[in-house]
Design brief:
Blueprint (H helix, E strand, L loop, with lengths): L9 H13 L8 H14 L3 H6 L1 H12 L10 H4 L1 H27 L7 E4 L3 E4 L11 H27 L5 H4 L1 H16 L1
Antiparallel strand pairs: 1-2
Helix pairs in contact: 1-4, 2-9, 4-7, 6-7, 6-9
Keywords: Membrane, Transmembrane, Transmembrane helix
Protein name: 4Fe-4S binding protein
């Protein structure tokens, strides 16, 4: 089977994580992974991003499949349930809006820039080497630290579920996948 350009988007996922390690402002690029799935779902009515363009899904498939880092067990039924997927989506958005609120506080001057990445929404990792200040407001960096935290946490969760279950088990409860699925269902009801 001939490889296409989008079969190599897993490389973009690795580059994204590496760039954020050295300069946190590159975390803003992660917004592409946030808006592109929504745009494709809204414009095409499909989960084309998830099925074809998601670099994280490709990376998990590669690591778990080709490199054999997965136990290849079925994901538990409760993780496939609507309640878990929607509950995780709500939790994810709560954390996302908390990150936006912290960004707002830095922009407004009510809070200083926190040069840390929060892993799994609980562990604050000092990340001061990745930001030396710029001409931009500290709020821009605060958003980057927060967004990189979200992206790193979701990657770690994906890696954990990849090792424990099938390679792309993260895709079952990925918040972006759940949102695009909701959009596609809503559009199919309209049509």
């Amino acid at each position: 089977m001939k490889k296409r350009w989008y079969d190599f988007l897993w490389i973009a996922s690795l580059i994204y994580l590496a760039l954020g390690f050295f300069n946190i402002l590159f975390a803003w690029l992660g917004l592409l992974c946030f808006f592109l799935p929504l745009f494709i779902a809204l414009s095409k009515g499909t989960k084309g991003y998830c099925n074809r363009y998601c670099g994280r899904g490709q990376l998990l498939g590669l690591l778990g499949g080709r490199f054999g880092l997965s136990r290849k067990k079925d994901i538990p039924q409760w993780m496939k349930s609507r309640a878990f997927r929607y509950g995780f989506l709500i939790f994810f958005f709560t954390m996302f809006f908390q990150m936006l609120y912290s960004t707002y506080l830095v922009f407004s001057g009510a809070q200083d820039l926190g040069q840390a990445v929060t892993l799994l929404w609980a562990f604050r990792l000092p990340w001061h080497w990745a930001y030396r200040g710029t001409l931009l407001h500290d709020g821009v960096a605060q958003f980057a630290f927060g967004f990189y935290s979200v992206m790193l946490t979701s990657t770690v969760l994906g890696l954990i579920t990849m090792v424990l279950f099938k390679p792309r088990s993260w895709c079952v409860y990925c918040p972006m996948g759940t949102m695009t699925q909701l959009i596609c269902k809503a559009q199919s009801r309209k049509g």
